[in-house]
Amino acid sequence: MALKERLRTWKRLFWLLILFALGLLGLYLYGLPVIRHLEVLIPMGVCPSARMALLRDNFTGLLHPWARPEVLTCTSWGAPIIWDGTFDPAVAQREALQQNLTIGLTVFAVGRYLEKYLARFLETAEQHFMVGQRVVYYVFTERPDAVPRVALAPGRLLRVERVARERRWQDVSMQRMHTLHEALGGRLGREARFVFCMDVDQYFHGAFGPEALSESVAQLHSWHYRWPRWLLPYERDARSAAALAPGEGDFYYHAAVFGGSVAALRGLTAHCAQGQRRDRELGLEARWHDESHLNKFFWLHKPAKVLSPEFCWSPDIGSRAEIRRPRLLWAPKEYALLRD
Ligand code: UDP
Ligand code: MN
Fold first, then answer.
1. TM spans, by residue (predicted)?
2. Beta-bridge mates of residue 158
């Protein structure tokens, strides 16, 4: 009898614990900020010291991943994850100058996104993006005349390319891959050696320098970088070109920032544009549009460099000790105002 009683108590306790865990998960997923802060307790993994010693690239020179023991500083395939303090910005600057680079920065500002975000994006880019390097901005818009005039430092120029305005915001976002592919095959590809492609609904807040450059560069998504892999919002419909099966995927990358050499980006944009076309023919649209296809691409073709969430941080998450110096910050989203 006593044994039965004890068993029942344990059973009740077990279910209470399960309910409690599910409750926490629910609160967490629905954005209760206090719960979100518990996220830092989820282990990110550590970079093995044998691999750490080998981490270097042609811009940052030898990296110092041991300077950030509290975060993951390399990937399983040996690419560095760039955190503040792991690189020497002066070395990166010198290397980039020696290579006499021109760096492209593309941004789309279609519809009301132009008035709302573009001026601040460009003005802050002048203060923080690849300062001291040769830069060419490419602004894609359906209204070239409305592009704000921003004073540019010597060695930097801004080109405006006209694009058609898609009716749905999802199509504006997805059409970027095709447009970028064409641009990279044209003047942009001839002018620039490396290119960053960014969303316009953000602004620079700290130095975003040549330490971010590499053959192919992916950005860790600030809302998802500590989540377990099975929770990541990949496309799961196996019929979609962007689908990742359970157990697949390394990280969840943010489509608001990606970059690389012209050749690598030609490959990336072709892959994503083609996947989107295939999906459309089947009447499908991936869960997070171009971002889903980008995540599929980086699963198949691992990025040579990964940027920590410090490079593109969402202030809505609040401050975190491990986010030392945010370089880009998400601007407030006002979808009701911006999207038709
Ligand atoms: N965009 C635009 N006009 C639109 C929709 C999107 O210019 O009507 C561009 C803009 O550069 C924007 C990007 O596409 O930053 C991605 O869209 P959004 O930022 O709304 O997507 P989210 O970051 O919310 O996923
Ligand atoms: Mn955005």
1. 12-31
2. 137
